[in-house]
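Quick one, T. Sequence first:
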Amino acid sequence: MAVHLQKSLQLTKQQKHNLRNRVQALGETQPHTLRYFSDPGHGWLEVPVVKLVSLGLHFTDFSEYSYTNGVYESGLKPFVWYRWSHGPMNEGGDPIHVVYLEEDCDAAIYLRRHREIYSRDPIITDYGLNDEAGIRNLPPIYSTAEIAI
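Structure tokens:
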């Protein structure tokens, strides 16, 4: 599956040019600043959904081993937030919609695209957790058909 994803995510020169223009139009000229969480068994790169989408990526580009803190579900609530103790909040105390890209393959897809658009790596702050990360209890992104921005 990873080989298929990597192959399908290759950008043409025109696509790369268009994405660079879109990122500049959004005022995003600096590399992204992200958080990397790891517990004793695994690690995840936390990426705000708006940053993921600005680079032309979507939930379907990643595996079932990556997670999100918000999903659409059928029923009474159109959007459901899932919280864990280290989840990001905006200045008003509301959750920020993020994905947690697993370290083995999915984070590399995002990092490769970031390098293509910004010509440099994002700034990453490492958060090592002593206990199992609450990220493991979030819904996987592969089951999410739509995203909210």
